Amino acid sequence: MSEIMKKVLIIGGGPAGLTAAYELARKGGVEVVVFEREEQLGGISRTLEYNGNRIDIGGHRFFSKSDTVMNWWREMMPLQGAPSCDDIELKREVTLAENGPDPEKVDRAMLVRSRLSRILFLRKFFDYPVSLSYNTVRNLGPVRMVKMGFSYLASMVHKRKENSLEDFFINRFGTELYKTFFRDYTAKVWGVPCSKIGADWGAQRVKGLSIAKVLGHALGKLAFWKKRDKQGGETSLIEEFWYPKHGPGQLWETVGAEAEKLGVKILRRQDVEQVVVDSGRITALVVKDLMTGESTRYEADEVISTTSVQELIRKMGSAAPAPVQKVAEGLVYRDFMTVGLLLNKLQLKSKNMNTTVGEHGVVPDNWIYVQEPDVKVGRLQIFNNWSPYLVSDRSKAWIGMEYFVNEGDELWSMDDTAFCDFAENELVKLGIIDKADVVDHKVFRIEKAYPAYFGSYKQFSVIREWVDSLQNLYLVGRNGMHRYNNMDHSMLSAMEAAKNITAGILTKDNIWEVNTEKEYHESK
Questions:
Q1: Which of 13, 91, 92, 233 has its C-alpha lying 20 to 30 A from 407's C-alpha?
Q2: What pLDDT is stored for residue 236 in this prediction?
Q3: pTM of the entire structure?
Q4: Which stretch of DSSP H or E encloses residue 494?
C-alpha cells in the first residue's frame, strides 16, 4: 500500500513560489501544486515580450551575498563560457566559466554584466549610489558642497530619533544632501513625503550606507584596495552582476520546467477566490480558472502564500478576526507602469551630460534614476545594456521608462496612446530623445509592485501574530510578507518555508528573520 503524500498548495508562481515548489519537489515526499494568475511565470520578475523585444519589469540584477542563492541560480542557468555579442564588439573582458555555454549558440546561459547606474539631476549625471568624486563636486559646485559638508557634520552631532524615513536619511547624510538626492525622488517613488514613511524602509533598502561608507568605497576604488572592496563593500556598491540571456523571466520559466520534471503541477491563469480556514488551519483553496470561468476546490495539507497580504486576508472572509481585517485593509501598495520605447537613437550629448555616448546614443548605464523634479518618470532602463539579446534589432535603442503610480490615478487611467505620448514628451523635455526617432512603443501596468511602509504598516504585527497561528500557512516573498524584499531574500524565505514543511518545524520565526541582517543584500 503506497504512502499518502502530503499536498502542498502554493499561491503564486513568482521567485518565492517557484523556489518553494522546486525545493519541496527536490526533497520529495510531497505533492505540490502552484497556482499562478498570469500566463507567464516569474511574478514581478517575469520578462514581457513585445514585437520580439523583451522587457524586464523593474530590472533584476542577479547578485546576492548568499552563496546558497548564487549557486542555486548557477545550477539553473550556467555562466557563460564564451563572450556575448556585445562583449565581442566592445572588446570587453569578462570572466568566463570553464565549459560554460556560448550565448551566441545556446539560450540557457547566464551572462556576466558590468554594473552602472547613475542619477540624472540638473541635466547632469551623478554616480549612484552618490559618491564623493570629482564629477559630483564639479556638478554640484562649491557652494552646494560646502553646505552639504556642514550639514553632514551637524547631523553627526545632533542625531534625530528615527521615527520616519526622513530621520533615517538625515542621520546618515545630513539635511542638505537629503534634500538634494533623497527627498524628492523618494516622494516620486512612493507618492508621499519621506516624513510619512517608516524608517523600516531605509533599514530594508539602504542599511549600512552613509557618508562614511561612501568615503570608504571611494578609497576602495584605488588599486591597492580594489580586491578587498569586492569582499567588503556595503549596499548596492557591486560592480558586476549576472543576468539571464533573455531576462529574469527566462530563468523562472526554466525553474518552472525543472520543477515540473520533478512532479510539480503548475496551473497558469488561475485565481485563488477563497482561502478556507477551519479549526486554526487552511483546509482548502477555491480556485477559478480564468480561461474557462470554472471554480475548483483543492484540499490542502500545507499552504504557502506569495500573494499580497491584503488579498490573502480578504479571501479568508469572516474567518479572519476583525482587527486583522482592519489592518490588512489599511496596507498600502505602490503600483508600477513601464513604457517600452524602441528608438532609432538617443539624443544624449556627452558634453552637457558629463558622460560617454556610444553608437545610437546608448550610454553604458543599466538604470538611470531621474531625479529631475519637472518630470514624473522615475527611472530609465537601457535594455541593450542588460542583455543585447533583449533587443530584436540591435541597431535600435530599446529603453524602458518607469513610473511609480497608484492604481486608478491620473497616469494609471490614461489610455496607452496618450500615456506613450506623455512619456515621450518627458524624454524630449530632458533632451534624451527626438520624437521623430520613436519607432514603436508599448505600455505595461503592474499592480501591487511595492509594499509600502506607511498606511497601517505599523500595526502589521497584528496580522503576523494571527497568520502565524495558522499552523499550516507560510507567508513568503515580497508581497507575501509585505516586506520590500529583493529576489534573493524572497527565495531565501521560500527555502526556509520548504525546510519547515519537510522537517515538521512549526515556528515561522526563521522565515521572518530573512532580510533582517545589518548589511544589505548586494554586499558580499
A1: 13
A2: 40
A3: 0.90
A4: helix 487-503
DSSP string for residues in 25-91: HHH-SEEEEEEESSSSSSGGG-EEEETTEEEESS---B--S-HHHHHHHHHHSPBPSS--HHHHHHT
What Rg value do the Cα atoms of the chain yield, rounded?
23
Place of cell 557591486: 238
Give the N- to C-terminal CA distance of the chain in Å, as an integer. Answer: 50
Residue type, 449: A
Which of 196, 467, 449, 204 is CA-nearest to residue 327?
Answer: 467
Q: What is the mean pLDDT of the chain?
A: 89
How far out from the chain centre does Cα 159 lie?
Answer: 31
Residue range 13-42, pLDDT digits in tens: 999 999 999 999 999 999 999 999 999 999
Please give the pLDDT value at position 211.
57
Amino acid residing at 89: E
Q: Do the bridges between strand 331-343 and strand 302-305 make them parallel or antiparallel, or are there none, so unpaired?
A: unpaired
Render pLDDT for 453-495 as a digit per residue (tens, 0 to 9): 899 999 999 999 999 999 999 999 999 999 988 999 999 999 9
Residue 100 has pLDDT above 50, yes or no: yes
**Alpha-carbon gap, residue 17 to 22, rounded angstroms:** 9
Distance of CA 152 to CAs 127, 155, 214, 234, Å? Answer: 19, 5, 13, 20
SS3 state of residue 109: coil
What phi and psi, each to the nearest 5 degrees, are found at residue 375?
-135, 160
Q: Within the chain, how many helices (H) and strands (E) appear?
A: 22, 19
Q: Which pLDDT does position 229 carry in this prediction?
A: 40
Please name the residues in contact with 461: beta carbons below 8 A apart, sequence gap of 6 or more: none
Give a three-class secondary structure readout of 121-143: ECCEEEECCCCCCHHHHHHHCHH
Task: Spell 310-320 as b/e; 16+ CB within 10 A means b.
Answer: bbbbbbbeebb
Residue 46 phi/psi, 5° resolution? -75, 160
What is the maximal distance between C-alpha atoms in the chain? Answer: 82
pLDDT digit string, tens, across residues 204-233: 666 555 555 555 555 455 443 343 343 343
Gap between the Cα atoms of 491 and 14, Å rounded: 10
Secondary structure percentages of the chain, helix, strand, coil, to 5: 40, 25, 35
Gap between the Cα atoms of 382 and 366, Å rounded: 5
